[in-house]
Amino acid sequence: VLATFFLNKNKMKLITCEHVSLDSFPFMVKFLKYTLLRLYHNVVVLTERDSKKLSKYHIKNIKISNPLKYRYYVRKVRTKIALAVGRLEEQKGFDRLLPIWHDFLQLKDTDGWLLYIAGDGSKRAQLESQAKSLNLESKVKFLGKVSDMPSLYKECDILLMTSRYEGLPMVLLEAKSWSMPVIAFDCPTGPREIISNDVDGFLASDSATFLNALRSYTNDETYFRMSRNTEQTAVDFSEEKIAKLWLSLI
Question: Which helix (H) or strand (E) holds 129?
Fold first, then answer.
């Protein structure tokens, strides 16, 4: 980073991007980041929370989200398949999802529901063991890495996210681009800026509210209403809107 500044003899504008939540770093790493980020002409961040943090330390920044191409996919039937996507690591919190799924299946009108988990990682064996201990072997499918995500989004009913922290999770945007209602833990940064609670998805403060949100999606009227409401995402994260923000930096 420092070499870039020393070699910048023509005094060009130097802009950097921070695509990981600043909250996720240890104190010393954050200290170094804040020190070095002051050297740039502008810092691009993905979330309002990170923008406010940088502004607090008088670091010039702009929030520019990832763009989204909305698919205008119309959901007409229920498949009773919930989808979770991500690396099978501690951050993604799949160990929190499995007990919630177990409790969901004990409720009325949940016969026939399945959970697909797409992704791979170091926690896979541990999660498969956890699913077995909860008697979920026939109710949870670990898909590993999936190359055709669009087909999976179309096949599944809802997207579930139990991450402990995020930046701006693309999986939420991608799911909503396919008119898929979502549920996510209201973790630091990310989900709150994508989900309008009780409009096009649910933000859960804990496992109990996550379970209640899952229960709500067994109601067809609620489900299809929220699916239609995802179209607002097309406006908020449109390629045209995001492109204008990038051009404003030039």
Answer: helix 124-133
